[in-house]
Amino acid sequence: MSITVVVFYLLAAITVLSALGVAFSTSIIYSAFALMGTLLGVAALFVLLGADFLGTVQLLVYVGGILVLTLFAVMLTHRVADMRVSNRAVGRGVGFVLVACVFGWMVHVARHAAWVTGEPGAPAPTTYGIGQVLLTQYALPFELASVVLLAALIGAVVVSRKEVKA
Amino acid sequence: MADLSLTHFVVLGALLFSLGLFCVVTRRNAIGILMGVELILNSANLNYVAFARYGHGAYDGQVFAIFVIMLAAAEAAIGLAIVLGIYQAFETIDVEATDRLRR
Predict the structure, then answer these.
(1) Mutate to test the interface with A, among B17, B18, B96 (most CBs of A within 10 A)
(2) Interface predicted TM-score (ipTM) of this complex, two decimals
Protein backbone atom coordinates (compact mmCIF):
# COMPACT_ATOMS: atom_id res chain seq x y z
CA MET A 1 0.00 0.00 0.00
CA SER A 2 1.74 3.11 -1.20
CA ILE A 3 1.65 6.55 0.39
CA THR A 4 -0.75 7.79 -2.30
CA VAL A 5 -3.39 5.25 -1.31
CA VAL A 6 -3.02 6.15 2.36
CA VAL A 7 -3.42 9.85 1.53
CA PHE A 8 -6.46 9.07 -0.62
CA TYR A 9 -8.21 7.14 2.15
CA LEU A 10 -7.38 9.85 4.68
CA LEU A 11 -8.83 12.58 2.44
CA ALA A 12 -11.83 10.41 1.56
CA ALA A 13 -12.51 9.83 5.27
CA ILE A 14 -12.37 13.59 5.99
CA THR A 15 -14.65 14.35 3.04
CA VAL A 16 -17.23 11.67 3.76
CA LEU A 17 -17.36 12.28 7.52
CA SER A 18 -17.91 16.00 6.92
CA ALA A 19 -20.57 15.20 4.32
CA LEU A 20 -22.29 12.97 6.89
CA GLY A 21 -22.23 15.94 9.22
CA VAL A 22 -23.84 18.12 6.55
CA ALA A 23 -26.57 15.55 5.90
CA PHE A 24 -27.39 14.48 9.47
CA SER A 25 -26.58 17.41 11.75
CA THR A 26 -29.62 18.88 13.48
CA SER A 27 -28.19 22.40 13.61
CA ILE A 28 -27.82 24.31 10.38
CA ILE A 29 -24.73 26.09 11.74
CA TYR A 30 -22.98 22.75 12.32
CA SER A 31 -24.00 21.71 8.80
CA ALA A 32 -22.39 24.85 7.36
CA PHE A 33 -19.12 24.23 9.19
CA ALA A 34 -19.14 20.54 8.19
CA LEU A 35 -19.62 21.69 4.60
CA MET A 36 -16.30 23.52 4.95
CA GLY A 37 -14.60 20.20 5.76
CA THR A 38 -16.14 18.58 2.70
CA LEU A 39 -15.08 21.41 0.39
CA LEU A 40 -11.52 21.38 1.77
CA GLY A 41 -11.36 17.60 1.34
CA VAL A 42 -12.53 17.83 -2.27
CA ALA A 43 -9.95 20.57 -2.94
CA ALA A 44 -7.21 18.29 -1.56
CA LEU A 45 -8.51 15.42 -3.72
CA PHE A 46 -8.26 17.70 -6.77
CA VAL A 47 -4.61 18.30 -5.91
CA LEU A 48 -4.12 14.54 -5.47
CA LEU A 49 -5.57 14.10 -8.96
CA GLY A 50 -3.00 16.50 -10.39
CA ALA A 51 -5.44 19.40 -10.87
CA ASP A 52 -3.54 22.07 -8.95
CA PHE A 53 -5.30 25.08 -10.52
CA LEU A 54 -8.72 23.57 -9.88
CA GLY A 55 -7.85 22.88 -6.26
CA THR A 56 -6.97 26.55 -5.82
CA VAL A 57 -10.16 27.67 -7.54
CA GLN A 58 -12.17 25.35 -5.29
CA LEU A 59 -10.49 26.88 -2.25
CA LEU A 60 -11.05 30.48 -3.39
CA VAL A 61 -14.57 30.24 -4.81
CA TYR A 62 -16.17 27.57 -2.62
CA VAL A 63 -14.52 28.01 0.75
CA GLY A 64 -13.84 31.72 0.38
CA GLY A 65 -17.04 32.71 -1.40
CA ILE A 66 -19.96 30.32 -1.37
CA LEU A 67 -19.44 29.07 2.18
CA VAL A 68 -19.14 32.60 3.58
CA LEU A 69 -22.31 33.55 1.66
CA THR A 70 -24.09 30.51 3.14
CA LEU A 71 -22.99 31.45 6.65
CA PHE A 72 -24.24 35.01 6.09
CA ALA A 73 -27.62 33.65 5.02
CA VAL A 74 -27.73 31.37 8.07
CA MET A 75 -26.99 34.28 10.40
CA LEU A 76 -29.49 36.62 8.69
CA THR A 77 -32.37 34.14 8.90
CA HIS A 78 -32.06 33.94 12.60
CA ARG A 79 -34.90 31.69 13.71
CA VAL A 80 -33.49 28.65 11.90
CA ALA A 81 -32.19 27.24 15.17
CA ASP A 82 -35.55 25.62 15.94
CA MET A 83 -35.97 23.87 12.62
CA ARG A 84 -36.80 20.19 12.58
CA VAL A 85 -34.80 17.91 10.33
CA SER A 86 -37.40 15.41 9.24
CA ASN A 87 -39.83 16.20 6.49
CA ARG A 88 -43.46 15.22 6.40
CA ALA A 89 -43.54 14.68 2.64
CA VAL A 90 -40.44 12.49 2.49
CA GLY A 91 -39.46 11.13 5.88
CA ARG A 92 -36.00 9.98 6.90
CA GLY A 93 -36.83 6.31 6.35
CA VAL A 94 -38.14 6.80 2.83
CA GLY A 95 -35.26 9.13 2.03
CA PHE A 96 -32.75 6.61 3.34
CA VAL A 97 -34.21 3.78 1.23
CA LEU A 98 -34.27 5.98 -1.88
CA VAL A 99 -30.69 7.14 -1.39
CA ALA A 100 -29.47 3.60 -0.61
CA CYS A 101 -31.02 2.34 -3.87
CA VAL A 102 -29.38 5.15 -5.86
CA PHE A 103 -26.02 4.59 -4.16
CA GLY A 104 -26.07 0.82 -4.71
CA TRP A 105 -26.92 1.27 -8.36
CA MET A 106 -24.15 3.83 -8.87
CA VAL A 107 -21.56 1.63 -7.15
CA HIS A 108 -22.65 -1.28 -9.35
CA VAL A 109 -22.14 0.87 -12.45
CA ALA A 110 -18.80 2.17 -11.19
CA ARG A 111 -17.47 -1.34 -10.56
CA HIS A 112 -18.72 -3.07 -13.68
CA ALA A 113 -18.74 -0.48 -16.46
CA ALA A 114 -15.93 -0.77 -19.00
CA TRP A 115 -14.39 2.69 -18.53
CA VAL A 116 -11.82 3.60 -21.12
CA THR A 117 -8.85 4.48 -18.96
CA GLY A 118 -5.31 5.37 -19.82
CA GLU A 119 -2.39 5.24 -17.45
CA PRO A 120 -2.11 8.64 -15.75
CA GLY A 121 1.22 10.32 -16.31
CA ALA A 122 3.24 12.29 -13.81
CA PRO A 123 1.40 15.35 -12.42
CA ALA A 124 2.27 18.49 -14.36
CA PRO A 125 1.26 22.15 -13.90
CA THR A 126 -2.15 22.63 -15.51
CA THR A 127 -2.60 26.42 -15.44
CA TYR A 128 -0.99 27.08 -18.82
CA GLY A 129 -2.97 24.37 -20.59
CA ILE A 130 -6.30 25.40 -19.03
CA GLY A 131 -5.67 29.01 -20.03
CA GLN A 132 -4.90 27.97 -23.61
CA VAL A 133 -8.04 25.81 -23.86
CA LEU A 134 -10.29 28.45 -22.26
CA LEU A 135 -9.32 31.08 -24.82
CA THR A 136 -9.36 28.86 -27.91
CA GLN A 137 -11.63 25.82 -27.80
CA TYR A 138 -13.91 27.03 -24.99
CA ALA A 139 -13.85 30.76 -25.78
CA LEU A 140 -17.60 31.01 -26.41
CA PRO A 141 -18.67 29.19 -23.19
CA PHE A 142 -16.12 31.30 -21.32
CA GLU A 143 -17.71 34.54 -22.56
CA LEU A 144 -21.22 33.17 -21.91
CA ALA A 145 -20.11 32.38 -18.36
CA SER A 146 -19.23 36.03 -17.81
CA VAL A 147 -22.71 37.05 -19.04
CA VAL A 148 -24.32 34.48 -16.72
CA LEU A 149 -22.32 35.80 -13.77
CA LEU A 150 -23.33 39.40 -14.57
CA ALA A 151 -27.00 38.37 -14.81
CA ALA A 152 -26.73 36.47 -11.50
CA LEU A 153 -25.10 39.50 -9.85
CA ILE A 154 -27.83 41.90 -10.98
CA GLY A 155 -30.53 39.32 -10.23
CA ALA A 156 -29.29 38.79 -6.68
CA VAL A 157 -29.33 42.55 -6.04
CA VAL A 158 -32.82 42.95 -7.52
CA VAL A 159 -34.27 39.98 -5.60
CA SER A 160 -32.81 40.78 -2.20
CA ARG A 161 -33.13 44.59 -1.99
CA LYS A 162 -35.99 46.34 -0.29
CA GLU A 163 -38.85 47.61 -2.43
CA VAL A 164 -38.33 51.27 -3.33
CA LYS A 165 -41.51 53.30 -3.73
CA ALA A 166 -41.12 55.59 -6.73
CA MET B 1 -0.94 6.62 -8.75
CA ALA B 2 -0.54 2.98 -9.80
CA ASP B 3 -2.52 1.42 -6.94
CA LEU B 4 -5.28 4.00 -7.07
CA SER B 5 -7.87 3.23 -9.72
CA LEU B 6 -10.61 5.33 -11.27
CA THR B 7 -13.18 3.23 -9.37
CA HIS B 8 -11.97 4.65 -6.04
CA PHE B 9 -12.82 8.19 -7.11
CA VAL B 10 -16.09 7.25 -8.81
CA VAL B 11 -17.33 5.41 -5.71
CA LEU B 12 -16.32 8.37 -3.52
CA GLY B 13 -18.24 10.65 -5.88
CA ALA B 14 -21.26 8.33 -5.64
CA LEU B 15 -21.09 8.49 -1.84
CA LEU B 16 -20.95 12.30 -1.86
CA PHE B 17 -23.83 12.43 -4.35
CA SER B 18 -25.95 10.12 -2.18
CA LEU B 19 -25.37 12.23 0.92
CA GLY B 20 -26.24 15.37 -1.01
CA LEU B 21 -29.42 13.77 -2.35
CA PHE B 22 -30.37 12.69 1.18
CA CYS B 23 -29.81 16.26 2.33
CA VAL B 24 -32.03 17.61 -0.45
CA VAL B 25 -34.95 15.22 0.11
CA THR B 26 -35.08 15.33 3.91
CA ARG B 27 -34.22 18.92 4.86
CA ARG B 28 -36.99 21.38 5.60
CA ASN B 29 -34.60 24.29 5.83
CA ALA B 30 -34.08 26.03 2.47
CA ILE B 31 -30.41 26.72 3.22
CA GLY B 32 -29.93 23.03 4.09
CA ILE B 33 -31.34 22.10 0.70
CA LEU B 34 -28.88 24.48 -0.98
CA MET B 35 -26.04 22.81 0.96
CA GLY B 36 -27.17 19.45 -0.40
CA VAL B 37 -27.03 20.88 -3.91
CA GLU B 38 -23.46 22.03 -3.25
CA LEU B 39 -22.54 18.48 -2.20
CA ILE B 40 -24.04 17.08 -5.41
CA LEU B 41 -22.13 19.60 -7.55
CA ASN B 42 -18.90 18.72 -5.74
CA SER B 43 -19.39 15.02 -6.44
CA ALA B 44 -19.93 15.81 -10.13
CA ASN B 45 -16.73 17.89 -10.14
CA LEU B 46 -14.80 15.04 -8.52
CA ASN B 47 -15.96 12.71 -11.28
CA TYR B 48 -15.02 15.22 -14.00
CA VAL B 49 -11.51 15.65 -12.66
CA ALA B 50 -11.01 11.92 -12.05
CA PHE B 51 -12.07 11.06 -15.60
CA ALA B 52 -9.84 13.83 -16.95
CA ARG B 53 -6.93 12.34 -15.01
CA TYR B 54 -7.50 8.72 -16.00
CA GLY B 55 -8.75 9.47 -19.53
CA HIS B 56 -6.63 10.81 -22.33
CA GLY B 57 -4.87 13.56 -20.47
CA ALA B 58 -6.83 16.46 -22.00
CA TYR B 59 -8.03 19.49 -20.08
CA ASP B 60 -11.71 19.10 -21.02
CA GLY B 61 -12.76 17.61 -17.68
CA GLN B 62 -11.03 20.30 -15.66
CA VAL B 63 -12.52 23.07 -17.82
CA PHE B 64 -15.99 21.61 -17.29
CA ALA B 65 -15.33 21.51 -13.55
CA ILE B 66 -14.43 25.22 -13.69
CA PHE B 67 -17.74 25.96 -15.41
CA VAL B 68 -19.59 23.91 -12.78
CA ILE B 69 -17.90 25.91 -10.00
CA MET B 70 -18.90 29.13 -11.79
CA LEU B 71 -22.52 28.00 -12.05
CA ALA B 72 -22.46 26.94 -8.38
CA ALA B 73 -21.36 30.45 -7.42
CA ALA B 74 -24.20 31.98 -9.46
CA GLU B 75 -26.67 29.46 -8.01
CA ALA B 76 -25.56 30.22 -4.44
CA ALA B 77 -25.90 33.99 -4.93
CA ILE B 78 -29.37 33.77 -6.50
CA GLY B 79 -30.55 30.96 -4.20
CA LEU B 80 -29.55 32.72 -1.01
CA ALA B 81 -31.06 36.00 -2.24
CA ILE B 82 -34.34 34.15 -2.81
CA VAL B 83 -34.07 32.56 0.65
CA LEU B 84 -33.64 36.00 2.20
CA GLY B 85 -36.66 37.23 0.23
CA ILE B 86 -38.71 34.27 1.50
CA TYR B 87 -37.61 35.05 5.04
CA GLN B 88 -38.71 38.68 4.70
CA ALA B 89 -42.10 37.63 3.32
CA PHE B 90 -42.89 34.59 5.51
CA GLU B 91 -40.71 35.11 8.63
CA THR B 92 -39.47 31.53 8.14
CA ILE B 93 -37.42 29.56 5.64
CA ASP B 94 -39.14 26.25 6.31
CA VAL B 95 -39.97 25.07 2.79
CA GLU B 96 -43.19 23.39 4.02
CA ALA B 97 -44.55 26.66 5.39
CA THR B 98 -44.22 28.47 2.08
CA ASP B 99 -47.16 26.81 0.33
CA ARG B 100 -49.47 29.82 -0.07
CA LEU B 101 -50.01 29.16 -3.79
CA ARG B 102 -51.27 25.63 -3.05
CA ARG B 103 -54.17 26.76 -0.86
Answers:
(1) B18
(2) 0.90
